[in-house]
Amino acid sequence: MLSNLTKPLSRSLVSKANANPVGRRFKSTPFPSDHSNAEGTFLSQVKEYFDKAAGLTDYPQGLLKQIETCSAMVEVSFPVKMGDNHDYQIFHGWRAEHSHHRLPTKGGIRYSEAVDEQEIKALAALMTYKCAVVDVPFGGAKGGVKLDPKKYTANELEAITKAYAQALIDKNFISPGLDVPAPDMGTGPREMGWIMQTYKAAYPSNIDAAACITGKPVSHGGIRGRTTATGLGVFFCLKEALRTPYVLEKTGLTGGIEGKKVVVQGFGNVGFYAAKFCHKAGAKVIAIAEYNGSVYNENGVDPDDAFEFFRKNKTFDGYTKGKFLPTSREVLEINCDVLIPAALEGEVNAQNAERIKAKIIVEAANGPTTPKAEAIMEKNGVFVIPDLLANAGGVTVSYFEWLKNLSHMRFGRMTKRYEESKWANLVTSLEKSSKTTWSEEERKLISYGAGEEELVNSGLEETMITSFKEVLDTSIAKKTNMRTAAYVVAVSKVANTYLDLGL
Ligand SMILES: NC(=O)C1=CN([C@@H]2O[C@H](COP(=O)(O)OP(=O)(O)OC[C@H]3O[C@@H](n4cnc5c(N)ncnc54)[C@H](O)[C@@H]3O)[C@@H](O)[C@H]2O)C=CC1
Ligand SMILES: O=C(O)CCC(=O)C(=O)O
């Protein structure tokens, strides 16, 4: 399947592509991203961002070094029986625990052919900073297995996932109090369920075993709202930006999401929900890019409809509600108000940054912008809401899930009916005293008691708004961009934790 993507485009695709909104001839997008290495590794880029922010603080060098250094890393190789002849295939995986300043450490598990040690370390470091920015009391971690999940059956993936989980259990790199994984690219609730099952089998008497992982199916202790959380958090950040006079002045945009032209790259868990919430709020999602081509419609596409088509066909080719473009990365350059990269790191880089026309970039992916690209776009007035803030909704709701698992009760169970009857009584009193009758709809609206999903989404919105404001205030106070400000916020919080406790 992948080899098709690296073949030269057929003539018909090239000629169709010439009439494209970017105005250049499309090329196929290599997979995985090839740009981050041309501008240093992803890990070196995260270090560059960290160093810039650290330079704006007064913490001692040794302390800053401790914050930056990855605390623990495990590399595992494990055999799994594959295929009809039951031969073994050896898989390679990693788990990095970047910072133990708070426990457990937290971060997703990625399945991708591009996974390697430096990528996992970079992603783990981002998790430390991200958790600090949104006041989630965890250290940062990340795991990954080098494989393309598209090449394996569900049964094979189950065997691989359980073997990887067992390898992490053997090394003490997964447990409710030490290290709690979650989904990332290429994994989702299904994989999290398999991992929980493996952990429970290893520790059958651990009453808190379900808290060893988040992003699980709701039927097995997961929380309502985790699947949508990262995309919804991206949306909350954008919404906040678009009602902040400082941002509007900087970007020249009018307030509110309605009517804004949005381009999304990566139509998986995060990209799909980010697009869906923007569309629901009245934005026009004018382009959606996947690794094997994109869909473009100046009047906007309906993300639900496009997702259904993509899920069935594994491509946008043939989707009639927009123009098919046989590329991905060039779509980032389309004229739009808001760009949401939700795929890989390094997609906005020194080679394309000058051509980015979006006024706001909301980094749903981890590390989509290289430092060189950031410098170019800053000069061009692009307002970037950085990954460690913009995509922190996922880990925020993971935190809620972990708390739910430790309390062994769903949020709202004790309060929902109590609240409903209290408000219903109030409405009845108001009706009596005002001698009016409220409609059933009005009654419901007032007296509805919040259930788990409403509480989760409310906690998520509060977190994203508060964190956005804190980062923006820091950015203004330090006269720096939002990314450096977010790193300053993170570094300060981690540093203060160390200083309070002693190293
Ligand atoms: N799942 C989560 O809760 C969180 C994910 N993230 C980040 O968001 C990004 C996306 O993650 P998920 O949506 O969970 O992964 P996913 O696996 O659900 O979806 C990723 C999508 O991107 C597509 N893709 C891959 N390469 C591409 C390319 N070159 N161009 C366009 N599309 C491409 C894939 O085909 C897939 O549909 C990653 O950077 C991840 O680290 C960040 C925070 C939390
Ligand atoms: O939900 C989590 O614990 C981590 C999500 C994640 O991997 C990320 O934010 O990059």
Automatic annotation (TrEMBL):
PANTHER family: GLUTAMATE DEHYDROGENASE, GLUTAMATE DEHYDROGENASE 1, MITOCHONDRIAL. Coiled coil: none annotated. Its main location: mitochondrion. Substrate binds at residues 106, 130, 398. Residues 223-502 form the Glutamate/phenylalanine/leucine/valine/L-tryptophan dehydrogenase C-terminal domain. SMART domains: ELFV_dehydrog. The record marks 184 as: Important for catalysis. The lineage of its organism: Eukaryota, Amoebozoa, Evosea, Variosea, Cavosteliida. GO terms for biological process: L-glutamate catabolic process. The active site is at residue 142. It comes from Planoprotostelium fungivorum. InterPro entries: Aminoacid_DH-like_N_sf (IPR046346), Glu/Leu/Phe/Val/Trp_DH (IPR006095), Glu/Leu/Phe/Val/Trp_DH_C (IPR006096), Glu/Leu/Phe/Val/Trp_DH_dimer (IPR006097), Glu/Leu/Phe/Val_DH_AS (IPR033524), Glu_DH (IPR014362), NAD(P)-bd_dom_sf (IPR036291), NAD_bind_Glu_DH (IPR033922). GO terms for molecular function: glutamate dehydrogenase (NAD+) activity; nucleotide binding. NAD(+) binds at residues 230, 269. Belongs to the Glu/Leu/Phe/Val dehydrogenases family. It catalyses: L-glutamate + NADP(+) + H2O = 2-oxoglutarate + NH4(+) + NADPH + H(+); L-glutamate + NAD(+) + H2O = 2-oxoglutarate + NH4(+) + NADH + H(+). Keywords: Mitochondrion, NAD, Nucleotide-binding, Oxidoreductase. GO terms for cellular component: mitochondrion. It holds the Pfam family ELFV_dehydrog. This is Glutamate dehydrogenase. PROSITE patterns: GLFV_DEHYDROGENASE. The keyword NAD applies. It is found in: Mitochondrion.
